[in-house]
Recover the amino acids of this structure.
């Protein structure tokens, strides 16, 4: 033992140097061989070679995609294939619903999403928590067989407790209830709502609590940002809204945050249930099957054609990114975009600029007051690229708006949980829907236009008028935008 101690004492600098060099070189090789984005590869290789110890540690925690490159990916893919099985139906002709340019977009999304485009859906937009939460509570309280709820944030506050009590009551009367909350999002309130649910016997789980198989801790860069509620396999809710008192006017008063959610009936509900069952199976190893959970009900409930577009750091990593590129390519008159966190990559920026140069009006609405200050700084560092080439950028007045909406030519809508930022487009598990329906697109367009009517336009002059120190700060924060 003494000899070992003497050896370590004499040669510890050499041992540390060897270990750090091997770790840094190994991390650099792994990054070069596995990263698909050359900028990410260059960044990680540079960090791990110039700072081997810190760089290797940072790469191990934040740089390795443990979903895409381990057996977890195979498990997720196999589960999705199983749960995504749908009855074969006649292809939907979207031209009468939206216009001839959208036939090519439908063909593109056929190649991107595992789900079919299904007609006969009823879509009800819900503007804010004052419309969404009562509708969700009504559905839960009327449940007869099953309730599946998934959320990124499910706060332990008055509205969270009201929904939790509805879930508990449903469980007590014999309804099968499953609740899935993201492991990072569950920490937004203390005590977490999952304790209340579990205490009352409701089967509840946290998504990605233990991704590395060693420590029971959330993996911050692989979050489930999805929002899903399915009741009896027949009524579905999805969109951008978490469960928080901040979205209820009676609780938040003048500081009430805005958001947009949707209530669905028709064949699309089976797709929402499939995404939830897939994530629940991955998290708990419990399979949700049978008629209680799934009703592949093709009886028309409305006129909208739509499908789910799941995305995440697995095999569907570029799904939303590619759909957005396709939508911008087919636009002929007007693109409206609303996102609280607007940090598109250069490819998407180029697509928006190209649309504007073709004569398409491109309106981009972002919050005047953002709840994530660092993200807002980064947004201001690159927004000039769009303004310079003809896109119109608007900063809303009033309370924070968390909506994620896109409409094209007042005919096609893309809505859900995805922000236009690196985290949503590459790191988070997200769920969006594409909707071929003029009435829904008109509602979304009108909502965005109303925000524009009360917004302040951003100009190159106003951006240049910012003090140099603020512009420098924004650029520095922008460099870290992939991890904000």
């Amino acid at each position: 033992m003494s000899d070992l101690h003497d050896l370590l004492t004499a040669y510890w600098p050499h041992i540390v140097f060897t270990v750090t060099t091997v770790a840094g070189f190994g991390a650099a090789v792994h990054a070069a061989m596995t990263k698909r984005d050359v900028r990410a590869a260059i960044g990680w290789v540079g960090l791990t070679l110039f700072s081997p110890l810190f760089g290797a540690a940072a790469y191990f925690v934040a740089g390795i995609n443990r979903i895409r490159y381990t057996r977890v990916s195979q498990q997720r893919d196999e589960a999705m294939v199983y749960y995504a099985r749908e009855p074969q139906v006649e292809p939907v002709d979207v031209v009468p619903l939206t216009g001839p340019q959208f036939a090519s977009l439908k063909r593109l999304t056929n190649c991107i999403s595992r789900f079919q485009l299904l007609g006969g859906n009823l879509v009800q937009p819900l503007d804010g928590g004052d419309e969404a939460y009562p509708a969700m509570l009504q559905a839960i309280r009327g449940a007869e067989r099953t309730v599946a709820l998934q959320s990124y944030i499910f706060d332990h506050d008055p509205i969270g407790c009201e929904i939790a009590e509805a879930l508990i009551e449903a469980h007590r009367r014999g309804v099968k209830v499953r609740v899935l909350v993201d492991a990072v999002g569950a920490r937004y309130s203390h005590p977490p709502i999952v304790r209340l649910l579990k205490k009352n016997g409701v089967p509840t789980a946290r998504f990605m609590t233990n991704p590395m198989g060693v420590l029971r801790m959330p993996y911050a860069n692989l979050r489930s940002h999805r929002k899903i509620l399915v009741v009896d396999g027949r009524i579905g809710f999805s969109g951008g809204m978490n469960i928080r008192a901040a979205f209820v006017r009676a609780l938040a008063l003048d500081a009430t945050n805005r958001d947009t959610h949707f209530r669905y009936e028709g064949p699309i509900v089976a797709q929402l249930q499939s995404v939830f069952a897939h994530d629940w199976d991955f998290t708990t190893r419990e399979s949700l099957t049978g008629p209680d959970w799934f009703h592949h009900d093709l009886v028309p409930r409305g006129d909208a054609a739509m499908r789910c577009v799941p995305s995440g750091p697995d095999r569907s990593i570029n799904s939303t990114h590619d759909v957005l590129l396709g939508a911008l390519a087919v636009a002929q008159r007007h693109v409206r975009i609303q996102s609280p966190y607007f940090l598109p990559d250069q490819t998407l920026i180029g697509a928006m600029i190209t649309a504007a140069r073709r004569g398409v009006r491109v309106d981009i609405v972002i919050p005047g007051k953002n709840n994530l200050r660092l993200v807002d700084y980064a947004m201001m560092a690159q927004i000039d690229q769009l303004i310079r080439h003809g896109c119109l950028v608007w900063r809303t007045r009033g309370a924070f708006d968390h909506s994620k909406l896109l409409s094209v030519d007042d005919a096609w809508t893309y809505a859900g949980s995805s922000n236009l930022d690196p985290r949503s487009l590459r790191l988070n598990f997200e769920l969006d829907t594409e909707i071929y329906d003029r009435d829904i697109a008109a509602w979304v367009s009108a909502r965005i236009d109303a925000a524009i009517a009360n917004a302040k336009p951003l100009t190159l002059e106003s951006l240049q008028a910012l003090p140099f120190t603020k512009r420098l700060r924004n650029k520095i924060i922008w460099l870290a935008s992939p991890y904000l």
Observations:
- Confidence is low (pLDDT under 50) at residues 68-79, 211-218.
- The longest helix spans residues 2-34.
- The domain at 319-483 is CATH 3.30.870.10 (Endonuclease; Chain A).
